[in-house]
Amino acid sequence: MSETSTSADLSFDADSLRERYRIEREKRLREDGNEQYVEMTGEYAHYLEDP
To answer: Which pTM was predicted?
Structure first.
């Protein structure tokens, strides 16, 4: 048994919520992508060890 809900069935505005999440996602995306991460070598190598 599978029930599908429409926007009218929900107690919140799904489109408005999707837009809010899109805006928050846009705030977190960076142009430098994976280049923002630091190589785990040298002074940062100790972070590779599992305490």
So the answer is: 0.48
